[in-house]
């Protein structure tokens, strides 16, 4: 049994002025959607332009004259700060964790220090503390995932670099300068 005839009947019952209004609204919908895409593309380009000014052009001028901040005649203060973003790819978590322990001395105290930075969680959905205790009690194998908050990782890497230490293998670090106007 075909339902095509039901749709044909329904279309015949829609007044012409409503079909015209619907057609106009659909055109407006498409035009508005295209306008939004154009504005989003312009915004993306402006953000890239601002990033280049903030991270490259202004810092290069201040670095060239040996300054990290300056006050303009307008009263605004231009500050260039060193920034760092660190990350660990999912596949490198154990490598980074083990190398961080080695970098801190490789002993039990180093392990405690690094463990305090990482949060561990069982990779079992909706697990309660009671279930986790049962797994441990009965020596049932389960996976634990270690995770470190990005700000904690950034701070750890910044401190290592400030002390002249190398970043442990498994951690990716991106260093850049950022301009602030106050």
Can you walk through the features of this model?
The chain is of the alpha+beta class and 182 residues long. The chain folds into two domains: 4-64; 82-181, no CATH class. It contains six helices and five strands. A three-stranded antiparallel β-sheet has the order 1-2-5. A hairpin with a 5-residue loop joins β1 and β2. α3 (93-103) packs across α4 (108-117). The relative contact order is 0.14.
Please estimate the helix content. Answer: 55-70%
Q: Please describe the biggest sheet, giving its number of strands, its sense, and whether it closes into a barrel.
A: 3 strands, antiparallel
The rough form would be described as: flat
Please give the number of β-strands.
Answer: 5
* Low-pLDDT segments: none
Write down the Rg.
Answer: 29 Å
User: What value does the average pLDDT take?
Assistant: 87
Termini Cα gap: 72 Å
Structural class by sheet pairing and helices: alpha+beta
How many structural domains?
A: 2
Spell out the helices and strands N to C: HHEEHHEHEHE
Detail the topology: elements first, then pairings.
Elements: H1 4-13, H2 16-64, E1 69-71, E2 77-87, H3 93-103, H4 108-117, E3 119-122, H5 129-137, E4 144-147, H6 150-162, E5 172-181
Antiparallel strand pairs: 1-2, 2-5, 3-4
Task: From the structure above, extract its key features.
182 residues; two-stranded antiparallel ribbon; 18% strand; 6 helices; alpha+beta; flat; 2 domains; three-stranded antiparallel beta sheet
Short description:
The protein has 2 domains: 4-64; 82-181, no CATH class. It is 56% helix and 18% strand. The protein has helices at residues 4-13, 16-64, 93-103, 108-117, 129-137, 150-162, and strands at 69-71, 77-87, 119-122, 144-147, 172-181.
């Amino acid at each position: 049994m075909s339902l095509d005839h039901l749709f044909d009947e329904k279309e015949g019952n829609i007044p012409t002025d409503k079909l015209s209004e619907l057609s106009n609204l659909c055109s407006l919908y498409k035009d508005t959607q295209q306008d939004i895409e154009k504005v989003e593309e312009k915004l993306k380009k402006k953000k890239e332009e601002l990033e280049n000014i903030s991270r490259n052009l202004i810092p290069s001028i201040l670095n060239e004259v040996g300054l990290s901040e300056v006050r303009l005649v307008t009263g605004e203060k231009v500050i260039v700060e060193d920034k760092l973003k660190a990350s660990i790819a999912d596949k490198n978590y154990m490598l980074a964790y083990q190398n961080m322990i080695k970098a801190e001395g490789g002993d039990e105290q180093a392990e405690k220090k690094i463990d305090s930075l990482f949060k561990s969680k069982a990779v079992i959905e909706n697990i309660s503390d009671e279930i986790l205790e049962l797994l441990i009690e009965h020596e049932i194998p389960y996976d634990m995932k270690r995770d470190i908050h990005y700000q904690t990782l950034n701070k750890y890497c910044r401190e290592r670099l400030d002390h002249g230490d190398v970043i442990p293998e498994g951690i990716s670090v991106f260093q850049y300068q950022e301009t602030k106007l106050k």
